[in-house]
Amino acid sequence: MRERCADAMSIFSKYGAPDLFITFTANPKWPEITENLRPSERTTDRPDLRIRVFNLKLKSLMDDPTVHGALGKSIAQVYTIEFQKRGLPHAHILIVLRVADKFSTSEHIDKFVRAEIPTSIENLRLHEIVTKCLMHSPCGINNPGAPCMEAGLCKKMFLKEFQTETTMNESVCPLKRRYPSDTTFVRGREMDNIFVVPYNPYLLLKYNAHINVEVCTSLRAVKYIYKYIYKGFDLRQHSFVCRTGPIQ
Questions:
Q1: Using CA atoms, how far apart are residues 187 and 135, in angstroms rounded to an integer?
Q2: To the nearest 10°, the Cα dihedral for 81, 57, 202, 91?
Q3: Are 204 and 130 spatial neighbours (Cβ–Cβ below 8 Å)?
Q4: Pfam families given for it (predicted)?
Q5: Is the pLDDT of residue 218 over 70?
Q6: pLDDT tens, residue by residue, 108-163
Q7: What gap in Å lies between CA 196 and CA 164, rounded to an integer?
Q8: Which of 95, 91, 64 is nearest to 206 (CA)?
Q9: Is the bond preceding 175 in cis, omega lying within 30 degrees of 0?
C-alpha cells in the first residue's frame, strides 16, 4: 500500500495536484448484467458478471476525460478499486487536467459539475438518474441512526445549504450552487437540492450509475483513496468465560 501511494504521489509531484475526484459505483441494474442472468438468478448470484461489466465501463470512463475531453483534457490519472460490503465494485479516480482546462472560476465549475435536481421537463432521463442514484439519504436530526452518522454528525457533511452561486475555497472542495427548489419525492421522502451529490450530466447519462464528481483542491485526496481501500477488515473481540460448578 505504501509503495502504491508513493507511486501516486510521484505522479502528482510531476504533473501537479489532482483537479477532479470521481467516485464510480457499479449499478446492478445495468442491462448488460440483467439481460445475461440465467432464469431464477439474481445479480448477487453473479459477481463475475458484475465485475466484468464494471471493468469494461470503468475503462470507458477513464477514456472520457483523456480521449473525449468530457471534463477537460486529462494529463494524468490514478484510480483504486474496492469491493463494498454489499459486493458492488467501487472506484475512486483522481484526474489532473491540462493547464488550459483547470477550474479557475465558479462559472467553469458549474459548466461541468452540478448539485441540483434537473426538472423532468428539462431532461426526464437525467432527472430519473439523479433521483435514483445521486440523492443522499436523510440524516442528522431527521434520521440520527443513518449509516453516515458518526458522533452526531454526517461523515459526508450533509445536509448542504442552499446558495445561489458556487463558492471557490482553497482549503476544501468548492461549495456548489444549490438553488432553492420544489421538493421531489424520492423513496417516499420529500427531497430537494440540499440532498444532491455533485455530478457531471454527461457521465450520468452515459453510464447510468452513481458517479460523484468533486473538484479537488489539495493532495489529501491521494492519501484518502489509498488509506480507505487498505483500512482492513471490520473486527470484533469476543471473550469466553469458563465456569465450573453446578448449573443453577
A1: 10
A2: 0
A3: yes
A4: Helitron_like_N
A5: yes
A6: 888 888 888 888 888 889 988 988 888 877 776 677 777 667 777 776 667 777 78
A7: 15
A8: 64
A9: no
